[in-house]
Amino acid sequence: MYIGSDYYPEHWPRERWREDARLMQAAGLNLVRMAEFAWDRMEPEEGSFDFSWLDEAIQILAEHGIKTVLGTPTATPPAWLMHKHPEIYLVNREGRRASFGSRRHYCPTIEVYHSYTRKIVRKLAEHYASNENVIGYQVDNEFGGSRTRGRCYCNSCHRAFQQWLEAKYRTLSRLNESWGTAFWSQTYSAWEQIPLPWPNEAPANPSLELDYYRFISDAWIKYQNLQVEILRNVSPGKFVTHNLMGLFPSIDYRKLGEPLDFVAWDNYPRFSQHLDPAAVAMAHDLTRSLKNRPFWVMEQQSGPAGQNVMGTAPSPGELRLWTLQSIAHGADSIVYFRWRTCRWGAEQYWHGILPHDGKPGHRYAEIKRAAQDMAKLKHLMCSAYPAQVAVMRSYDVLWAFEAQPTSADLDYDQELKSYYRALHSLNVNIDVITPEAEYDKYKVIVAPSLYLTNDDIVQRLEKFVAAGGTLLLSFRSGVKDWENVVHEETLPAHLAGLVGASIADYTSTGRFESPNAPAQLAEVEFVHPELTSYRGTASVWCDILNLESAEALARYHGNFFNGTPAITLNKHGNGSVIYVGTSLNDVAIRELSKWILRTQGLQAPLGTPTGVEIIERRYNEKPVLFVLNHNSERATVSIPTAARDILTDQRYNDELLLDPFDVAVLELV
Amino acid sequence: MYIGSDYYPEHWPRERWREDARLMQAAGLNLVRMAEFAWDRMEPEEGSFDFSWLDEAIQILAEHGIKTVLGTPTATPPAWLMHKHPEIYLVNREGRRASFGSRRHYCPTIEVYHSYTRKIVRKLAEHYASNENVIGYQVDNEFGGSRTRGRCYCNSCHRAFQQWLEAKYRTLSRLNESWGTAFWSQTYSAWEQIPLPWPNEAPANPSLELDYYRFISDAWIKYQNLQVEILRNVSPGKFVTHNLMGLFPSIDYRKLGEPLDFVAWDNYPRFSQHLDPAAVAMAHDLTRSLKNRPFWVMEQQSGPAGQNVMGTAPSPGELRLWTLQSIAHGADSIVYFRWRTCRWGAEQYWHGILPHDGKPGHRYAEIKRAAQDMAKLKHLMCSAYPAQVAVMRSYDVLWAFEAQPTSADLDYDQELKSYYRALHSLNVNIDVITPEAEYDKYKVIVAPSLYLTNDDIVQRLEKFVAAGGTLLLSFRSGVKDWENVVHEETLPAHLAGLVGASIADYTSTGRFESPNAPAQLAEVEFVHPELTSYRGTASVWCDILNLESAEALARYHGNFFNGTPAITLNKHGNGSVIYVGTSLNDVAIRELSKWILRTQGLQAPLGTPTGVEIIERRYNEKPVLFVLNHNSERATVSIPTAARDILTDQRYNDELLLDPFDVAVLELV
Amino acid sequence: MYIGSDYYPEHWPRERWREDARLMQAAGLNLVRMAEFAWDRMEPEEGSFDFSWLDEAIQILAEHGIKTVLGTPTATPPAWLMHKHPEIYLVNREGRRASFGSRRHYCPTIEVYHSYTRKIVRKLAEHYASNENVIGYQVDNEFGGSRTRGRCYCNSCHRAFQQWLEAKYRTLSRLNESWGTAFWSQTYSAWEQIPLPWPNEAPANPSLELDYYRFISDAWIKYQNLQVEILRNVSPGKFVTHNLMGLFPSIDYRKLGEPLDFVAWDNYPRFSQHLDPAAVAMAHDLTRSLKNRPFWVMEQQSGPAGQNVMGTAPSPGELRLWTLQSIAHGADSIVYFRWRTCRWGAEQYWHGILPHDGKPGHRYAEIKRAAQDMAKLKHLMCSAYPAQVAVMRSYDVLWAFEAQPTSADLDYDQELKSYYRALHSLNVNIDVITPEAEYDKYKVIVAPSLYLTNDDIVQRLEKFVAAGGTLLLSFRSGVKDWENVVHEETLPAHLAGLVGASIADYTSTGRFESPNAPAQLAEVEFVHPELTSYRGTASVWCDILNLESAEALARYHGNFFNGTPAITLNKHGNGSVIYVGTSLNDVAIRELSKWILRTQGLQAPLGTPTGVEIIERRYNEKPVLFVLNHNSERATVSIPTAARDILTDQRYNDELLLDPFDVAVLELV
To answer: Are C256 and C220 in contact (CB under 8 A)?
Structure first.
C-alpha cells in the first residue's frame, strides 16, 4: 500500500526539495511519481543525458522514507526533437498537423519517434535498474488524453492502417467481402487505395471506420508495449504500469492492460463527473475488472482541477471521501495529483495538495488524515471484492456506435450508466466487464445494446444463462457481426434463441429530423405481476417485438405499435433473459433491477438513503462494509447487527450517523 | 405507368436474384432502377469492362415482367480511378480535398474526370442500346446531394469560374461595373485575379458570390449534359432522366431538367420533412412544374431512412399514402428505394421494402397494396393538373439571399412554404414555378420576397396583372438587379408601378445583435372591411410604406412606424397587386389567401378537416379528387354530390369517412 | 469642430459629386473623410498613380465649404498587388490563408507589404502636402476589424514573433524561466523552436500565449507607425489619426494612440451594443481617456447597419441623440458613416444618411438638425471633462484571461461593464483608464479582476490609496506577474497589503462540468451598517477570505464557506480598499457604488430616471449638463436650480420634460 503524490522537482528550486520531502513525510506519504514530463531535463540536447537532478530528488525523498515511481517522458518530447522531426506531430481529422507547446502531440506509429523513444526509455531504465528507491515505472502518461483522443490521420498512420488491414484480412477479396465494398463502388484492388475515414461528402463505410478505431487503439498499445519490453528487459524486478482514464472510449483498456503488472487510473470526481459518485464508482469498477485485481489511483484529485478553465473546489471532506471510495473499490495505492500547484504552464489551475504559495493548508491537513485512515485499512487492500453482478461494456460496440449512432439520441455509455447507476443504488457490488471476460462467476450480467456479437460471445452467454444466470439485453443487441455488418438473420439474430422473441420492426426517435417531432415515441407500462406498477416514456428507440418463447414484462402505450411487448422475459435452461426494447428512465430501470436481484436472491448488505454508497469487501471470509456519505448533509444508516468502525474504533448498534462526506468502514460483530 | 424499386443485384448473391424477381413480380412491380453505383463492377480495372452480371440480372428480371432503368455510375468513381487521379476530388470551402470511401466526392469541372465519364457512359450506352428490357437511363445520382451541396473550390473550378465570367461579361470593365468592384478596392485588371468566394476576413462581394453559385449550378448541368448527349447519340429511343431532390437549393432544376425527357425526384417524407405533408406536396408541385408534365418518383421512401442516424419509422399506411400523394401530384411512375435493406456500407439504416433478413413483411404487403391501387389509377396518369394559383420560387433569389440574408431571421424558403402551406390548406391546386415560367395560365401568382428583378420578369408580371391576375409580393421584393446590386430607384424600384406604394424606410429584426433585443418588432392589424379581423406579430422585417395609388389592407401597431401601412392593395389594369411589408404568421397568411382566392372566384372542390389533402385532377374534362388523410386518426370529409371511390368502388353521398393514412380517389357522379 | 460624413466619390458618377456637395453643405456639414478604400483608383496598375479624380472631388467639396480627411488606402490592397504577392495574405489560426475580395486580409509583418505601403503612403502624402483642403490623415482603417481580429499566424509573423521575443528576453534562459517551460518539457534551446499558439492537442503555455497577443498588438502598432512617420515627414502640418473600435480587445489602444494627434473611433450603437447606452458611454470614455483629450467620432451610425445581415433601424431621434452623446463624452468632431448607402459590395445594408436612391429623407433631416445643435455647442468642445472616478481596464489582463478564463463564466469586460454601468447610472463622470495612466486626479479607482500586477502598478496604487483614494479590487486581482505566472506569495500577493486580507481558498462556478451543477455557488449578504440591506447570488467565482487588517462588508451564505467574508474594507493610509471576492449582480454593485461615492463625498449633479444619462462638462469653471433621454418614452428630470437649455434657449425651474430620445444641454443659472 502506497500513498503519495505526483511530484515535479523540475518545477521548483532545489532548495525547496528537502522541505517538500519533509512535509510529505509529515503527512504520512511514502511515494512519489516523477519525471513523466521531464524529457527536456533528462536529455537537454540530443544524445546528452542528465539524470543527476533526478537522482538527487530521489535520494532526498528516500531519506524521508519515500519511494519513487518513474514515468517514461514520452508524452512530451522536447523542443529540439520536434523541431528536427516535425513529421512526428500527429495530424487530426481536419488534416491539421499539431505543433509544439502542448502535449501528446505525436503520432503513435511513426518510426523515427519509436527510435527516439527506445533510446530515452533504455537510458532511463539502465540508469535506475539498480536504484532500490525506484520501485516501478509508468509508461508515458494518459494515452489518448488530448483533443483528438489520440486519433492520428498522418501518412504514417495511413500506411500503418493499410498494413494492419493486410495483416488482418490477408486478401483484398476477404476485406471487400467483410466490409461490403460493393456498396457505393468501393471495391479495393490494391491495399494502398484504402483511405482513412476522413470527414467526407457522405459517411464512410462503417466497417472501415470500426477497423480504423481498432487500428488506432492497437497502435497505442503497440507503442506502449515497445516501452514495456525495454523496461522489463533492462530494469527487471520493478513493476510497469500506465495511468488510464476510467471510461475513456478510444483505447481498448483490456488489451492495453494485459502486459502491465497492474493498471492505474486518474480519478477527478469534480472534473468531468461532477457530483456523480456512481460514475466514479463505475470507472473504479471498470478499472478493477480489467485485470480483476487491485489497481492504483495514479492521480487522485487534490483540489480544484482544470486547464484554462477550472472546476469547483472540493468541499472539505471530499478529498478524503474520494480516497476511501477508491480504496473501497479496490485501489491499493493512492497518488495525489499533484504535490504543489504549478505557478506556470497550462495547468496553473490544476490544484495540488499545496497551493501556489507552497504553504500547507486545509487540503494538506485533509490528505494527512486520509493517510492515517489508509494505514488503518492496510489489511483490506488485497481483500476479496465479491461481485455477482456484471455490467458489460464493449470497446468494439462503443466504436461501432460512434460510426453509426443509428438513433440521434443513442448514447451507449449513457445506457450503461443508467443500468450501472440503478444497480449501484441498490448497494450491490458490480464488475464492469468487457465481453471477453469470464462470465461464470456472475449471477447477473447486464449487457445493454450489445450491438455486435460473435460466435464466442453468443456461445458463452448461452452457457451462462443455461447455468442459471440472468442476462439483460436491450434494444440494438445482436444487430451486427464483428465487422460491423448487419446479420442476415432476423433480429436479434444470433441472440434470438436467448431472447425468445423476434424484432418485427423498430423506430428511432429521429430527433434530428424536425422541430415538429413528437415529444415522445410511446410509453412503457409494466405488466408483470411481480413488477411494481410503472408507466413512463419510451426514449431513443422502440423495438417492436414478436413473442416466441418469451413473455411480456412490459408493453407499449401509443404509436402504431400500441399494446405490443416492450420488455420480454425468456426462460432459457436454468436461467432467464430479459430483453428491453427501448431506453427506460431511471425509475423504470431501478424497478427492473430490483426485481432481477430479487429473483436471483441477491441481497444488499445494507439499505441506505440516497447518496450513501455501500461497498462490501471480504476479509478472512467476513464482510467489511465501506459506508460512504456523498451528501453535503448528515446521513443516517440503519445497521442490522452491531458493528465496529475500523477508522474510529467506534461501535454501533442500530444506526450509524455519518457527517457530510464522512466514511465508516464497518466490521460486523 | 411503372411501379418498381431501386435494386442492387451487386449487393446480393446471384442465387438470390431470381427469388427477388419473383417477389417483385408477386407484389405487382414492373420496373427496377439499377447500377447507378456500380462502376467498380462495370470496370473493375481500367479499360476492362464487364456487364455480364448486369445482363444476367436484367434478363432474370425481364423474365418476371420487370423492365430496367440504368443509372450511369458516375456518382461513385472506383478506387483505382481516384487513386490514379486524386486531383478529381472535390475541394470544400474550408479548402479540404475530399477522399475515397464516400460518394459525390468529385469535382464537376475537371477534364480528366469528364474523359473517364465519357468512356464509361459510352460503353454502357453501347452495351444496352439494343437491349429492349432497358427502357431508359438515369444520369448519375442526385447531383449536389452531399455535404458541400456540390460546391467545389478546387483550382479547376477556380479557372472554370473565371472562364465562365469571361464568357458572361466579355470585358473586365463590364464585370467591374456590374459588380461594383469600386467598393473595397476590388477592381480586377486580369481575369485570373478573380477569387472564389472563400470564407474570408470579411464578406465577399455579393455579386461575385451570386455568380459563383450560378457558375457551380451551370457546371453540374454541363456535366449532366455531357452524359445526356452520349446517351442520346449512342442509345437512341430510350428516355433520359435524373433524380432531383425536391426543394434542394443549389442547382437550377429548371435548367437541369431542360434536356431530359422528364424529371424524377427522390421523395422521403419522414427523412427531412417530418410529418409535413404540405412540404412534400410543395416539392411534388415544384418538380411537376419544372417541365409542366408528369414526372417520376425515382426513390420513394419504403421504410425508416437515414445514414448514420435514422429517422422514425413510417406508420402502417404511410407508404401507400405517400405513393398515392405522389400520383395525385402528377407522378406517373413510382420507384421505391430500395428493394432490400443493405447489410453493409453507409446506408444500412436506409430501409428497403424488405428488411435486412430479406423476408417479405408488412412493408412488402403495403407496397403490394399500393401497386394494386396504382393499377386502378392508370388512366389518370396523364390526366390534366388544373392549377390556377402559382407560387414563385427563384434560384437566383435563393442564392442572393444565401449571400446576404439581410435579416438574420429571413429564410426565403420558409416564406415560400408559409404561403404555399396556406394555399394548400385551402385545397386549391398549386404550381410552384420559377420566374422564367409562363404566367398567363394563372389567376393568382404569389411571389414572396422577389428580391431580384429584371426587365423581362417585371414586364411579364405587369402584363399578367393588367390582364386581371392577382399578384402577391412581399418585403424585399424588387430590391436588386440581376447582378445582385441594389436598384437606384426608390424601392420597390421597378415594381413600384405595380405596388402603388414606396418604401420610406425599413427595419430588420436584427436578432443577431443582442439578448436585449425586443421580442417583436411590431404587430400587424388587418384594416380592410373584407378581411377577417386579425392582429398578430410582424416578424423578420418591416417595410415602412408610403401609399401612392395603393390602399392599406393592414397597418402596424407599435414601434416608431405605428399606424403606417403594413399590407397594401393596388389596382392595376384589370388585376391587383398585394404587397406584404413584413413576415406574417400562418393565421394571417391563411386569412389573406382566403380573401385572394375569393376575389378571384377560385373555389376549392371540397372543404376538409386539418391534415386531409385534396388534389383535383381532370380526366375527360371531369374532376377526379384525390382525398388523402395524413392524420393518424380517422377523418370525415363532407362531399357535395354523390361520388365513387375508384380504389374501392364504394359510393358516397354526403360524407366520406377515411381511416388513418387512408386515401380515396373520387369521381363525382 | 467638424461635422461631416464618410464619402466615397469613387462609388458614384462624377455628375453626382456636385449635388452631393450641395446637399452636404445644406445640411451643415463641413468635412468628409475619403479614399481609405481607394487604392485601386489611386494606383490602378503598379507604379502608375492617379489622384486626379480625388483632386476633383476635394475641389468640388471645398467649393462647398467642406474640408477633407484622407485615409491611407492600406486596408484594401488592390487585386494586382495581391495576385503578384499572395504571401501578403494573413493566415488565420486554423491555418487558412485569406484570399482576395474582402478587406483587412493582409499580414501586419510581411516586409513586401510594408514596402508597397511606404510607396502608396508617400505618394499620397506628397500629392496632398500642399493641398489646404486636406486637413489631416487617417492611417488605414479599423486595425483588427476582421474575423481574426488581426491575428496572423503566417511564417512571417512566426519569425517576427521569435524576433520580438528575442528583443524582449535577450536570452533563452530568461525566456524559459519567465514562462516556466519546465512544465510539459517545453524548454527552448533555439529561438526558432518557439511555436505560435496554434490550437493544439492541449492548451499552450499561457505565458507564450500572452506574449503572442502582445506581439501581434505591437505588430499593428509598428505597421501604423511606419505610416505615421511618412505622413509627418512628407506632409507636415496636417493631423494624423486612426479610427479605433471602442472596446475592441486585441490591440493596445493606449500604445496605438500615442503617436497620433488625437484618436477617433467608430460608433455604432445599434450594431453591436443594441440599446445599451451605458456600453456606448463606456466606449466614449475609454477613447477619451486614451490621450485624455477630445477625440473624433470618425464613423457615427447614420442608419441601420450590418454586412450580410443588418440590425434594427434607429428610431427617429436616435441619430441626433447619439451625436450629442458623443459630444457630451468629449468628441469634438462627428463624421457620419456614410453619406449615401452603397448599392454594391459587402456593405449594401450599412446605411448612410441618404438611402440607396440618393434622395434626402428623414435621416438627412435629422442629421441637419444635429448639425445645428452642434453649432450651438461649439464653445463646449474643448471644455473640461471633470472625472473623479476611474474604471481600470488592462489590455494585458484582457489577453491573460483570453488565454485562461479560469472560470467558464468569467468575462473580464462584463465585470468592467457591470461596475461602469452602476457608476454611470449614478450620474458621475467616469474615465476608463489603463493601469499605465496617472492615478492622482481620481478619488475612486475601480479595478475589477486586476489579474496581472507589476511593481509599478502596485506602488502607484499604494500611493493613490495612501493619499486618500478609494480603490475597489475584485476576485482574481493580483494573481499573476506580468509574464502570466502565478505569484509565489499568498493571494492577493503584492496587493495583500492594500487588501488587508488573504485568500485561503477559492472556487469557480465550473459551469462547464455538468448539467447537474448547482444553480448558484452561494449568496452574498451585506453586513456593514452603512450599506443598504442586500442578499443575492454570488456568481462566477468565490474567494474565501481571511481577514487581517480588513473588516467584512459582506459575507457568504451557503456552501462550505458559509459565513466567511465576501467583501472586505481595508483602511490604508488616508484611503481605503474594497475587495469584492465574487461576481455581484447589478443591484449589489449599484448599492456598493453608491456607498463608495458617498464616502468620498462625490455627488451627482442631478438625479435621473432610468435611461436618462447625465454628463457634466465645465465651461469657464461652471458646470454644463448634458441630459440625454435614451428612452422611447418621455422622461421628467427634477432640477435643483433654474437652468437654461443651450439648444432651445428655454429656461426651466423645477423640472425638465424630455421627449423620447431628446437631449437638453443645461447651463445652471
So the answer is: yes
For strands C331-337 and C295-301, give the pairing. parallel
pLDDT of C520 reads 75
- Residue A381 is predicted with a pLDDT of 87
Whether A142 is a known active-site residue: answer yes
- pLDDT tens-place string over residues C454-472: 999 999 999 999 999 999 9
Which three three-digit cell numbers place residue A210?
Answer: 470500426
User: Which residues 526-565 on chain A approach chain B with CB closer than 8 angstroms?
Assistant: 559-560
Distance CA C361, CA B594 (A): 37
In a mutational test of the A interface, the residue from B310, B339, B417 whose CB has the highest number of chain A CBs within 10 Å is: B310
Distance to chain A for C184, nearest Cα, Å: 5
State ipTM.
Answer: 0.96
Cell numbers of A292, please?
480483476
d(C-alpha A23, C-alpha A25), whole Å = 5
- Reported as a single tens digit per residue, the pLDDT across A22-37 is 999 999 999 999 999 9
C46 is catalytic: no
Grid cell 416466441 in the structure block, residue: A548
Grid cell, residue C608, equals 435621473
The rounded radius of gyration (Å) of the Cα atoms in chain A is 26
Cα–Cα distance, A188 to C11 (Å, whole number)? 58
Nearest CA in chain B to A187: B40
DSSP string, B560-613: TTTTSEEEEEEEETTEEEEEE-EE--HHHHHHHHHHHHHHTT---S----TTEE
Are C651 and C617 in contact by the 8 Å Cβ rule? The answer is no
Distance in Å, alpha carbon of B486 to nearest chain A alpha carbon: 35
Chain B 427-486, CB below 8 Å of chain C: which residues? 484-486
Q: Does domain A2-153+222-380 have CATH number 3.20.20.80?
A: yes
- Pick from C354, C294, C359: nearest CA to C329: C294
CA pair distance B618, C423, nearest whole angstrom: 75
> Cβ of C187 and A38 within 8 Å?
no
CATH of domain B2-165+218-380: 3.20.20.80
Could you say which residues from 205 to 244 on chain C have a Cβ atom under 8 Å away from some Cβ of chain B?
none
Domain boundaries, chain B: 2-165+218-380, 389-599, 612-668
Give the predicted TM-score (pTM) of the model.
Answer: 0.97
Which of A38, A41, A313 has its CB closest to that of C506? Answer: A313
Fold for A612-668, please state it. Immunoglobulin-like (2.60.40)
In this structure, CATH architecture of domain C389-599: 3-Layer(aba) Sandwich (3.40)
Asked if A19 has any chain C CB less than 8 Å from its own CB, the reply is no
Looking at chain B from residue 408 to 437, which residues have their Cβ under 8 Å from any Cβ of chain C?
408
Q: How far is B399 from chain C (nearest CA, A)?
A: 13
Q: Any CB–CB contact under 8 A between B276 and chain A?
A: yes
User: For residue C649, what are the CA distances in angstroms to C376, C622, C664?
Assistant: 10, 17, 10
**Half-sphere CA count of B524, side-chain side, radius 13 A:** 33
DSSP letter (8 states) at residue C279: H
Q: Which residue reads 455488418 in cell numbers?
A: A485
Residue A513's pLDDT is: 45
Give, as one character, the DSSP assignment of residue C353. Answer: S
Q: Where do we find the cell 446479420?
A: A487
Cα B477 from Cα A493, distance rounded (Å): 59
For B404, the grid coordinates are 446576404
Question: Cα(B278)–Cα(B273) distance, rounded to whole angstroms?
Answer: 9
Contact status of B180 with chain C (Cβ, < 8 Å) = yes
Chain C contact for A312, CB < 8 A? yes
- Whether B305 contacts B351, CB under 8 Å: yes
Question: 10 Å Cβ neighbour count for A77?
Answer: 24
pLDDT digits (tens, 9 = 90+) for B445-487: 999 999 999 999 999 999 999 999 999 999 999 999 999 999 9
